[in-house]
Amino acid sequence: MKVSYHGHSVVKIETSNHTILMDPFISGNEACDLDADTVKADVILLTHGHNDHVGDTVDIAKRNEALVVAPNELANYLESKGLNTHPMHIGGKHDFDFGRVKFTQAFHGSAYTEDDGTIIYTGMPAGILLTAEGNTIYHVGDTGLFSDLRLIGEMNEIDVAFVPIGDNFTMGPEDALVAADWIEAKIVVPVHFNTFPLIEQDAEDFAKKVQTGQGRVMQIGEEMKL
Question: β-strands 119-121, 111-113: how paired?
């Protein structure tokens, strides 16, 4: 399995038979190295409905005939756009041919803003536990610190956790360090930072301070093998 980071909260997972994109915010994201017109994906996993996470989902999914797995209301909205979706909700898990997906809680918002300014409610925000080929990846999603992260860490052997550190809209570095201790992942990767000035952070400093597991800053496009 190969896992790569592509700016903001964009994560790509390549298994033996599938390419999975998480929160593919590509167009309009200067921190992303992917091309929305050519990127391949068999599956798209979404944590919530904000535009900087849904991103290019509609175009990518249509071009690739990809399955979109998302919280129920967001999945229903995207189905109305002609996408093949699988709705889920917090606490639920499902076994797909590419692996097991379980949605966890996250404390944030979730709404999609149309081009004309119309705001569409897209249900509860979430984190995503993806287990495939013997590895578990936890995309924490956009969230503040909450104590059940400790329980999620105790219940799952997490190989890589993608944890937001940007502050203002999500956890900042101090709270994210507590979250990293509770999650107990083998590798902790900071995300959701430096996309724009309001969420600028020193990711290297955060990674050095991670006490439980290895803090690792992934450069844009960098890949790790699990």
Answer: antiparallel
Q: What is the mean pLDDT of residues 6-35?
A: 97
The predicted structure's pLDDT at residue 226: 95
User: What mean pLDDT do residues 81-110 have?
Assistant: 98
Report the C-alpha gap between 172 and 209 in whole angstroms.
13
Instruction: Please name each of the domains of the chain with its CATH number.
Output: 2-218 (3.60.15.10)
Q: Which of 76, 39, 29 is nearest to 59 (CA)?
A: 39
Helix, strand, coil share of the chain (percent; to 5): 20, 30, 50
CA dist 83 and 195 (Å) reads 28
SS3 letters for 77-109? HHHCCCCEEEEECCCCEEEECCEEEEEEECCCC
- Give the integer Cα–Cα distance in Å for 226 and 116: 43
Give the pLDDT confidence of 161-194 residue by residue, as tens digits. 999 999 999 999 999 999 999 999 999 999 999 9
Per-residue pLDDT averaged across 93-112, rounded? 98
Instruction: Tell me which residue of 9, 212, 5, 3 sits closest to 127, measured CA to CA.
Output: 9
